[in-house]
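Hey,
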Amino acid sequence: MKVFYKEVTVEAVDGGFGVALDGRIIKTPGKDTLVMLTSVLAEAVAEEWRAQSDEVDASTMPITKLANTALDRVAKRMDDVAAEIANFGGTDLLCYRADEPEELIKRQNEIWNPYLEWAKDVLHADLKTTDGIMPVAQDEAALNQLTVQVIACDPFELTALHEFTNGFGSLVLALAYMQGHKPFDELWAASLLDLTYQEEQWGLDYEVEDKRKEKLADLEATCRFLKLVRDN
């Protein structure tokens, strides 16, 4: 789509703030008005539209994409999205441990165990771990406590939580970020622990590295999105 507008402004609309292109409030791909709860989020979306040159390139507009997702895909099916995210608790990355070698086992214990302790103490979710690939059945009470955390999110927060959970492969790590327990860099490194160890042994796979960079860029955009959602 070619750039067809000259002026991008943030406007007050029913329920919050919208972005107008030459005075016309933009809509989501689902044809709903893109209403954002904070003016700073709306301004960030506006800046992405202002930054377009000849063609509107959606790949350069991650905040707009996340805001659209929150309204089109999350807000309209909150229960389903919350259930999908909560299900990660049953197969959380942190619960599946190596049975060899000793160095990897040691790293997993040192780096991952504190997050499970945090989940137990703060989220009241006592998750079990297992060695190897055999699945472990988590207690229903623990999963219910994780569900409580998930359903407490509004559509915009739930959108961010979905991105973090998928990106980290761990609901516990995602909640640790959402609740300010640890900074993003530490959580990102924890999510890559197994891969980092394998690369130390066998070297870097450049195709894997490219995909990791893409995922990191997506998650960093999600960090910014969440801050804007919460910034009054």
